[in-house]
Amino acid sequence: MDGDIVPWEKATVHVFTHALHYGSGVFEGIRAYKAEDDVLIFRLGDHIRRMMESAKLYSFDLPYSGEEICNAVIELIQRNDFHDSLYIRPIAFKGVGGINLDARATPTSVSIMAFPYRKYFNHDKLGLDVNVSTWRRIGEPAVPGLAKACGHYINSVLARTESAEAGFDEALFLDGDGHVCEGTGENIFLVKDDQIATPGFGSGILDGITRETVISLIRDLELPFTEREVARAELYTCDEAFFTGTAAEVAPILSIDRKPIGNGKPGRLTSKLMEGYGEIVIGRNSKYLRYVTSVYGNQQFVRATSETNSQIPRRVTE
Ligand code: PMP
To answer: pTM to 2 decimals?
Structure first.
């Protein structure tokens, strides 16, 4: 918290914190995976870069460089002596400085949490039963949807709660124009006749790091792929559908609005991409070694670590 490592119970903030009232913060969700005798952080530099870009979109100053934040993530894991798979949550938020909505003069706090973590969705099921939310995804012209800002997530809370109340596992947002957008914390892909499609930035999605990784994998496998507007009706007639996200990883969708997708089981291409993604995150795909940062310096991954560190972002404003 603001440069110190503090015990979990002491990691508290004042009730007058600006971000608590107005959502004025930006954050990231990062995973680290247990691999051999090491822990590998997945695309650390890319997550921190996105956090700095989110901060820039809201004119929040960050008191640390990207390199300092990346190093703090590594140190936090080492100091906790974590050797399991983890979830890492860096957050930069406006602290105590009054009720003024223009928070430029309000100090920005930076905290990082890390804790052991396995699955986001119920692991007893092979995939997800999804509903199309009655709520649309937040975005332009009201807010910059590309920013991973705290306040934006009240939209996801609304949709996810509505979805759970109706007995679904996850909600899918349409954008303001009624095109398919994304989940409450995931991007979406559809497969029809072996053609893979996903909505692009024009549909108001978050620039998902898992999405981008899966697109690279699709290209490696030379599977037909397009990034395009996706109509709602395509959801109900596709052969396969899946979500991608740091927490969700690659998650098969089994039904949408109670209509089964394909045969109602994880599809062939979905399973292939789940497997490929699973290999990348634990450093088993040599092409993507640069995506993992070794926490404990296992020699097998150290070369990757030094390459990742050279890509760690400096301050956006520099
Ligand atoms: N969309 C939203 C709204 C999200 O919150 C997330 C999770 N960060 C994603 C998509 C997926 O992004 P990523 O793959 O970078 O976790």
So the answer is: 0.95
